[in-house]
Structures are given as structure tokens and as C-alpha cells.
Amino acid sequence: MIKSKILLHEQLNRIVEISGENPISGKHLVVVDIQPEYLTGFKDILYKFINFLNTNYESLGALTFLYNGYDTLGMINENEYKMWWEENGLDMEVIDGARFYDKGYAFFRYCIDSNIDEESIVNMVKFMIEKNVNDSRDLDEEFWDEFIERYGSNDVRELLEFAGDCINIPDLMDEIGGYRGIVVCGGGVNECLKEVEIALQALDKPYNVLTQYTY
Questions:
Q1: Which end of the chain is more exposed for a tag (fewer CB within 10 A), N or C?
Q2: Radius of gyration, CA atoms only, the chain
Q3: Is 69 found in the same domain as 35?
Q4: Strand arrangement, sheet containing 207-214
Q5: Are 73 and 39 in contact (CB under 8 A)?
Q6: Which domain holds residue 83?
């Protein structure tokens, strides 16, 4: 248990805020939920961000837009989303070269919204992956006993063991599993962006945060 916590803290220490003239050079920029449904949250930074992408795109290693789309929430579909970016001034070169992925929604939010410690959520997700369990409602007493013995996060057990709500392992984990040199931005910082960060931590993926373009 001590060793696992040390490793987690070492990994968390690699999560840093970045800035500078071109902080995304050679990186995989992952944009989370900058989409029309959430415009009120980021409208003050939208056009500055678009100019930033147009200016720095050629230096990027990769660009991915993670969004809540039609397949998961009945929101914008991929073609409409691309058109929205074009209408707001994003160069077609950037749009054509980017990956768009409908990431799903609220897979860890029950714990986040219940104010469970982030490290405890990460440990929980890691352990579920290790045990090949996708839905916390499927966990048995043996799982919980072993989880507590290893991590000591009893607050997670108290919240989830007999709850009607759950956390689950999303397909997003497979999507981001191959990412390298990750920089994230977007939002919301305590909602969907936080879920993506937890997913990255659970997969032991170091990442940086482009804080000037978060909301």
C-alpha cells in the first residue's frame, strides 16, 4: 500500500501547469468540451484559443478534441462540431488534421460530486481496471476488502458499496491509452476535464495543463 501511494504521488508531481510562447510544440494537445453547448463557460477565451491553434498547429505532435456528442448525450455530432469550429475561424488545415472523439459523460462524476479525494478516485479506477470490473455496482465484498487493505480509502467504499449510482470505466480509457506527450485544456475544471485528468492518472499517463485555456 505504501509503495503504491508513493508511485501515485510521484506521478501526480509530474502534472504541472505550463505556459510560454509555444507550450504545445511537439505535444499531443487534448481539448476537452470546448463546444457550443458550453459556450457560456469559455466564450471569453474562445477566439484567443482559436488564434492560438491556428498559429501553433504546425508545431503540434497531435491534436484531439474530446467532446460530449450525439452518440452519448444527443448533443452535437462530429460533422456539426467541425462546422462550428470552421464558422468560428479555426483553419480547415487544423480541423482536417485533428481527431474528434465522443468521450462519454459522467463516468467518475458520482465520486467527484460527492467530494471524494481525487487520489482515492484514481486508486479506485486503477483497481477496477486491474480486476477487470467496469461498473462499481458489480463489485463484491472481496473486492472491497482487498481495495481497503491496499489503499485504505474507506470513504469510497462507504459511498459506492450499496449505492444506486456508480462509477464506470469508459471506452475513453482505450482511446487515451496510446497518447504520449499530453497537454490538456478545456473544461469544466471540476467536471469533464477533471474526469479526463483522473483517467490519465489511472493509466499512469503524465500530462500538463494549459491553464490559460481552461474554464
A1: N
A2: 18
A3: yes
A4: 16-17, 207-214, 182-186, 28-32, 62-67, 99-102
A5: no
A6: 25-89+97-106+179-189
